[in-house]
Design brief:
With 125 residues, the chain is an alpha+beta fold. 45% of the residues lie in helices and 32% in strands. The protein has one domain. Strands 1-2-3-4 form a four-stranded antiparallel β-sheet, with helices on one face. The protein is rod-shaped.
Length: 125
């Protein structure tokens, strides 16, 4: 008889149970939203670092052919622009034989300045 009484109970959820379940769901959604924002920020930082690597490698190729690199490059990225400042030696100043070359690419994202350094050896006859 007690089982039949429980099955006939059709009250549903109380307001307290609904509020608690909504609170738990809200906490989970806030955590997921925060992790998504952090993921997107690191994605942008990694993409900008990859762009700095490409710029440094392109500059090294120019130096190998005897051309000098530009001092800065501006790249449009999504909804903003990033300026990459390049510090590289002039190939005219190289001595005969092997020359250690240090190419530094600096850029700013947010409130932080990032840097990528490429070190290579270039031979001049």
């Amino acid at each position: 008889m007690a089982v039949a009484a429980i099955l006939n109970n059709k009250k549903g959820f109380t307001i307290v149970e609904l509020l608690i379940s909504m609170l738990i769901l809200s906490i989970i959604l806030i955590a997921l939203t925060h992790s998504l924002a952090v993921y997107m920020q690191y994605n942008v930082i990694n993409t900008l670092r990859n762009e700095a690597i490409k710029i440094a490698q392109g500059c090294a190729e120019k130096i190998r052919t005897g051309q000098s690199c530009s001092n800065s490059i501006t790249v449009n990225f999504r909804k903003f622009t990033v300026r990459f400042n390049i510090t590289a030696p002039n190939p005219v100043t190289f001595s005969s034989g092997t020359n250690d070359v240090l190419i530094n690419v600096n850029y700013r994202y947010g409130k932080k300045t990032y840097s990528y350094t490429l070190r290579t050896v270039i031979y001049k006859e």
